[in-house]
From TrEMBL:
<dbReference type="Pfam" id="PF01614">
    <property type="entry name" value="IclR_C"/>
</dbReference>
<keyword id="KW-0238">DNA-binding</keyword>
<feature type="domain" description="IclR-ED">
    <location>
        <begin position="6"/>
        <end position="175"/>
    </location>
</feature>
<dbReference type="InterPro" id="IPR014757">
    <property type="entry name" value="Tscrpt_reg_IclR_C"/>
</dbReference>
<dbReference type="GO" id="GO:0003677">
    <property type="term" value="F:DNA binding"/>
</dbReference>
<dbReference type="InterPro" id="IPR050707">
    <property type="entry name" value="HTH_MetabolicPath_Reg"/>
</dbReference>
<dbReference type="InterPro" id="IPR029016">
    <property type="entry name" value="GAF-like_dom_sf"/>
</dbReference>
<protein>
    <submittedName>
        <fullName>DNA-binding IclR family transcriptional regulator</fullName>
    </submittedName>
</protein>
Amino acid sequence: MSWGSRLVELASAAGEDRLIASAGPVLIQLRDATGESAQIFRRQGDWRVCVASAERPIGLRDTIPVGTQLSMKAGSAAQVLLAWEDHDRLLEGLQNARFTPTVLAGVRRRGWGQSLGEREPGVASVSAPVRGPSGRVIAAVSISGPIERLTRQPGRLHAEVVCNAARVLTEALRKNND
């Protein structure tokens, strides 16, 4: 990893406290609106780490505790965290990934990602980017749950509300930076 990209990651970590401070109510609202578990992921090197979550209180759920490290090679949050990276990091991230350049182009075009059984069989998810004050993607807000509930087109059901949650978090980070 180059020093430049490492410094960018360290600088973005400074925004993490503001992100987490804003996350609770937004994730609870997202969970209640969708009926699914909601999370925020940040990239740390080759991993994405859950930095905040609101679990579905009852029934079948996809539980991802805070601190969980997941691969950057599968899942809608990984797609979102990778889609806006510079060319070299994008190519590096696509090596052995469960998604393709075409999928990432779709994420950039729509402004959200979805996955069906990509990270774990039977689990679907929808994610959208949270941007820091500079406009750079610093996190992904996600919902995840069983494909039976989220259907084979989870984005059609939930992209709008997930994107709204991402916008609220992005605005909170901009306000805190003024």
